[in-house]
Amino acid sequence: MATARWSIDTWQDLFRTLFRPEHVAFFPHKIFRWDAQGIYRDCFYPFPCQHLLGGETILGKSVKDVLPKNVSYSVQKALRLTLRQGLPQEVQCVLSAGKKYTVASIRLFPYDSEVLGFVTDHDMSGRPLIHVAPDHPSIGFLKDSLQPTPISAFHR
């Protein structure tokens, strides 16, 4: 099982394989890599965003240590199911920061013996919290390569 963090180039290559600038409305706000025990092993933020739970400081911690109890139970269950069945799962969680509530939509995908979680945050009405235009400088790396990296390049 790989526990080392991926390089920014690896994350950008993966993102470039999956998305194009014109798909910006569908970009996840953050991507996490969890191991089979639900430990945060890595993260990638395609564009700057505030992480409600601490950003990179959660790396090395368990889902149970980071998320509220009811949310961690749902995420842990989805992680186990993703690994056991080898199929994507989706879970939606409501997180609060003071009087502000956020709905985190987490799409989980198996990746070797780990899980990738693509997270998009929404307000309570369902609107994404982050709105980025296709020409936003933080996603300029999507235009760096004319040819996307083949998905087979990500298999270890």
Can you give keywords for this protein?
5 strands, Beta-Lactamase, alpha+beta, globular, five-stranded antiparallel β-sheet, 156 residues, 21% helix, 26% strand
Instruction: Tell me the number of structural domains.
Output: 1
The chain-level structural class is alpha+beta
**Morphology call:** globular
Which CATH architecture would you pick? 2-Layer Sandwich
Average pLDDT, rounded to a whole number, is 83
Strand order of the largest sheet: 2-1-5-4-3
Looking at CATH, which topology would you report?
Beta-Lactamase
- The radius of gyration over CA amounts to 15 Å
Q: CATH superfamily, called what?
A: PAS domain
Helix/strand order: HEEHHEEE
Taking the sheet with the most strands, its summary is: 5 strands, antiparallel
CATH class: Alpha Beta
Number of strands: 5
Could you list the spans in which at least 5 consecutive residues all have pLDDT below 50? none
Topology:
Layout: H1 8-18, E1 30-34, E2 40-44, H2 63-66, H3 69-85, E3 89-97, E4 100-111, E5 114-122
Antiparallel strand pairs: 1-2, 1-5, 3-4, 4-5
